[in-house]
Amino acid sequence: MITIWKTPIVATVEQVLKDLKLQLYGAGLLKEIKNTGSDLMCTCPFHANGKEHNPSCGVLLQQKVTKDKTYEAGTVHCYTCGYTADLPQFVADLLGLSSPVEGFKWLVNQYNYQTEERELPDLDMYRGSTAKSSVLEESLVKQYTQNLLQSEEACRYLHKRRIANWVLEAYELGFDPEDKTVLFPVRGMDGKVIFYKGRSIAGKHFYNAKEIDKTSVVFGLWEILNGSFSWGTSDQIEEVWITESEIDALSLISYGVPAVAIMGSHISEDQCKELERTPFRRFVLATDNDDAGRKGASQIKRLLIPKGFRFINLKWHTSLKDINDLVKEYGDGWKDHLTGY
């Protein structure tokens, strides 16, 4: 716990910086964070376009009292460019917030809650500037994928979720070894990665930059339109399964079932337009086995049936929550626990 502006914040300075790093994947800021014992040293995000090779920015881990002044934990000073700020100002400058007050509010909202386990909502991470059209450099996509393929820990995590090796490679899943985060690339209809979704393999954490509108794209749609799979080309696909999460979709694909994810329980108008641009008109609704999932399935039908789409509903013969749980539990026999109607 640290104290900021006389308010306890239920986090460490190191935790705050790592969470900020996850929200700033696109620009590659705070690439290196080192704990020296008395403070943290990180690459300065405010000079050399945040790409300096050696960390020159110091961040106090604890309050520091001198003869002239008291410095709060989280106070930042760059020994190269001279940038100096307290933690709320640093947060505001990094995230493009309007004032230190907004940076302080971010800290309070992010960390001051009571729960037995920290489980953030489903999150996305931009990999570029704040413009919606931003895309990640292909070389960086390849590097993240290589990180994944070289990590036994990350591959084991995904294998436990019944995601096949060929799917990891075909969809170019990535991995950040420092933060132990599996990265799921979300591509636009031009095939370029717009943003990543991140899932920690160390716990039930999901990461994002909150300003990202994940409802503008359908996960996996570009891949089944353009990829080479066991079911053939896109014009040979008779039906596509719609799921809520990318893990659910990749589970189905590993079993030879064409699938996409709307990254939530409800579909957006933009996502409907994306589907309209494809040759697919027959879908299986595989949203989660809960009230939100059933309401989401009804909404999908309400929006798309008038546009000529046809749907197969699923009846679940199990209390398991989602498709990935079903596949993990029953393996090859997962379909035996569903009825289409």
From TrEMBL:
Species per Swiss-Prot/TrEMBL record: Agathobacter rectalis
GO MF term list: DNA binding; nucleotidyltransferase activity; zinc ion binding
UniProt-listed Gene3D superfamilies: 3.40.1360.10, Zinc finger, CHC2-type domain (3.90.580.10)
GO term, biological process aspect, one: DNA replication, synthesis of primer
A Pfam family assignment: Toprim_2
Source domain of life: Bacteria
Protein name: Toprim domain-containing protein
Family annotation (SUPFAM superfamilies): DNA primase core, Zinc beta-ribbon
Any one annotated GO CC term: primosome complex
InterPro entries: DNA_primase_Znf_CHC2, DnaG_primase, TOPRIM_DnaG/twinkle, TOPRIM_dom
